[in-house]
Amino acid sequence: MAQDPSAGPLPEDLDAALSGITAAAVEVMPAVSYASITVKHEDGRLETVAPTAQLILELDRAQYELQEGPCYEAATSSVHVTSPKLAADERFPAYAEVAVAAGIRAQAGIRLFETGEATGALNLYSEEVGAFEDLGVLGDLFAHQSAMALDYAREVENLQAAVEARSVIGRAVGILMERFGLSDARAFGFLVRQSQQQNVKVRALAEDFLARSEKVYDGE
């Protein structure tokens, strides 16, 4: 399993939703000093997003490398994981030593979403011993509200992707119509047939066609 805490940018809407969740966790949840979100991708790769402090990137990375800790467990196997007294938690002996040395005394992981093989978990860090002993209803409520925010962000993201795809395909169809004297239906049908024959998505084929057309137009 590869572990990568900084694997590249997320779409703006989803990134904003995740950042809003971690910021709200620190602001409204009792005893939360820091927060982040761990995303386990379908290929097993672990990624940290929306950390509220640089320190959390290092602690998340330690959990991925050691394959132990509340954030690792919540992202890979358990729905909710709490460790109110991290120094004495026998489940995470190696990680607890790293966390306590960094000033973290308690920690919790809350599963936020599951999409196929991909999962996401909210990581809560506290400098107070005994924090998260009674996460209970508050944790469930926060997870529910966070999931709703993520669903909305995904809807916006998918809508934007659909609009962008339509624009790209429309431009490619327009060029085919002009260049070969085709109707819009026949030009679109040509793209669909090429997509099926080459086993690539229509949008990807349209993007490639536009790129090659621009090169020809520029005289390359």
Automatic annotation (TrEMBL):
InterPro entries (alphabetical): ANTAR, CheY-like_superfamily, GAF, GAF-like_dom_sf, GAF_ANTAR, WH-like_DNA-bd_sf
Pfam hit, one: GAF_2
Alphabetical UniProt keywords: Kinase, Transcription, Transcription regulation, Transferase
Keyword Protein biosynthesis: no
SUPFAM superfamilies reported for this sequence: CheY-like, GAF domain-like
GO MF term list: kinase activity; RNA binding
All copies of domain ANTAR, residue ranges: 149-210
Descriptive protein name: GAF domain-containing protein
